[in-house]
Amino acid sequence: MTTLSLDPAAPDLAAAPSPPVQRPFGLIRHSLALSRRTLLVMRRTPEQFFDVTVQPIIFVVLFVYLFGGAVAGSQHAYLQYVLPALMVQTVMFASMTIGVNLNADVKKGVFDRLRSLPIARSAPLIGAVLGDVVRYLISIVVILAFGIAIGFRIQTGPAQAVVACLLLLCFALCLCWISVLFGLLLREPGAVQGVSFLVMFPLTFGSNMFVPVGTLPGWLRGWVDINPVSHVVSAMRGLLVGGPVAGPVLWSVASGVAILAVFFPLAVQVYRRRT
């Protein structure tokens, strides 16, 4: 027969709270679940897709038919040159939206409600970034399909084209953490958009996107050579229309990793402090 201890100093095992169960890959599972929230918001507000559907087409039409004859001598030749660059530009501009959306969610208290859930602390932030991948994919598909419709031709092969799209997608995922940091640091969505444009414009227009580097003055050429966007554009051209591939791809990957290594921990730190 078992005897029960009546010692008041004995610990009450029934009242002791059980420790939380640490499940493996919790952050990944929670982030993927919360990315679904971002997709649902996009589906209910389809106007969010205007900048990745209508805007790319407008850029292609303007640059090809307005500057094609002056820069390259013909619209078709310039289309082959500029479309890979416009793919990069479109995805870069699309990556700015997440900072504005995060800033609005923080002001509305959305992240305060998510913090009360039994989920990983950084899961809402990472889930928002993963959900934004859909916008990047749409922008890549739209601009490439429209380019092919008006005469652009992939001169390498399907495998190289897929690698180019994946490289661009990975670079956008690294670059978007800059916008995430601005969205958490600044107080108003309009300020986030304005500061993001100030950063993106020198990266996009101060590169080899629209004109050959040899036509630029020496002081500007030095910036273009170290600009990470120039390496991504060169990699896209090499993978889609031919040219050097190994060097630009390696530099693009290294640039993306460097951006991620700097801005991801900063964004997470600011997010934890603010929420």
Description:
The structure is a single chain. The chain is mainly α. It has one domain. The chain is built from twelve helices and no strands. The protein has helices at residues 26-44, 50-72, 75-94, 97-108, 110-115, 123-131, 133-149, 158-185, 189-205, 218-226, 228-240, 246-274. The longest helix is centred in the C-terminal third of the chain and has 29 residues, at 246-274. The model is unreliable at 8-22 (pLDDT under 50).
Helix content: over 70%
Low-pLDDT runs of 5+ residues are: 8-22
Q: Could you tell me how far the N terminus lies from the C terminus, measured between alpha carbons in angstroms?
A: 54 Å
Q: Report the major sheet.
A: none
Shape: globular
Estimated structural class: mainly alpha
Q: Mean of residue pLDDT?
A: 84
What percent strand? under 5%
Total of helices: 12
Order of helices and strands: HHHHHHHHHHHH
Q: How much is the radius of gyration in Å? A: 24 Å
- What's the domain count? 1
Record field, number of beta strands: 0
Give a short synopsis of this structure:
The chain is mainly α. It has twelve helices and no strands.
Layout: helices, strands, pairs:
Elements: H1 26-44, H2 50-72, H3 75-94, H4 97-108, H5 110-115, H6 123-131, H7 133-149, H8 158-185, H9 189-205, H10 218-226, H11 228-240, H12 246-274
Question: Which descriptors apply to this entry?
Answer:
single chain, 275 residues, mainly alpha
